[in-house]
Amino acid sequence: MPRPPDLADLAIGVLGGTGDQGRGLARRLSMAGHRVIIGSRDAGRAEAAAASLGGGRLLDGGLNSYAAAEADLVIAAIPWEGHRDLLADLARALAGKIVVDCVNPIAFDSRGAYPVAVPEGSAAEQAASVLPDSTVVGAFHHVSARLLLDPDVGSVDLDVLVLGDDRAATDLVIALAGQIPGMRGVYGGRLRNCGQVEALTANLVSINRRYSAHAGIRITDV
Q: What is the full DSSP assignment across 94-154?
């Protein structure tokens, strides 16, 4: 799979990057020195989001198709409702690339957050099913967008579970997570194990609501 020889050379596209999670990851990864392209269905919104984060040489915006085409690695931070259709539309542009899926299929009712059943098993597995020529990795599911966007938070202290079937791709994403201060990437198994990782987000939402927190996870003894 072609990719830049050095992690520092990665250009990163963020699909759905005008949402809080996408903007937060774009901000932190551009701060780590990467060129980041924020993608959206509306180029103007993407450009405005990039400008709001400082813009400049390392951070710009455009259509999702532009972000997919320009990037070496792409993060899918899109709403669950449009997940399958958007990725399927971009399959050709994403061929040969690593696609990091951080989408959590959860919903809310009067009792709080709960995981949504996905026919393929998880959002990441759905992505793999519509992107047969891409290498899909699941990661960044449990990172608080508010912490990522907060200029007063210098260190985002949590572990990121990284799941996938390609060792080189998961190692690269683990290293990428480690470029955000306080964050550590930890291999969490094959892509087929992504369902429970995505579903755990509903538990974290419940924790955050009960304790007015921005909880993440830490893996012990590793």
A: HTTSEEEE----EEEETTEEEEPP-TTSSHHHHHHHH-TTSEEEE--TT--HHHHH-TT--
Of 33, 100, 35, 91, nearest to 73 by C-alpha is 100
Domains of the chain: 8-211 (3.40.50.720)
CB 17 within 8 A of CB 74: no
pLDDT at 1: 37
- Which distant-in-sequence residues (6+ apart) come within 8 Å of 169 by Cβ? 1, 98, 135, 137
Q: How far from the centroid of its chain's Cα atoms is residue 54's Cα? A: 20
The identity of residue 142, as a single letter, is: H
CB burial class (10 A; 0-12, 13-18, 19+) of residue 120?
middle
| 161/138 Cα distance (integer angstroms) | 8
For residue range 160-218, list pLDDT tens digits in order: 999 999 999 999 999 999 999 999 999 999 999 999 999 999 999 999 999 999 999 99
